[in-house]
User: What shape does this take?
Amino acid sequence: MSGESRNMSFTNIKVFSTTLARDREMMGENISRWIKENSNIEILDRVVTQSSDKEFHCLTITLFYRMK
Assistant: This one.
């Protein structure tokens, strides 16, 4: 977590994850839509994780947030 958000307590997490290329292309739009639909939250931090094996590439974005 970033230095600034370490002093803040999150109460919830939201995980966006996919292994499909077409879903990875849309992930940013899906996250933006979710944030707009949940305007009563304050995002405190995020973690982006990538992993892969011989066949699949997985992208996971985890948001740490609390209610405003």
In short: The chain is about 25% helix and 45% strand.
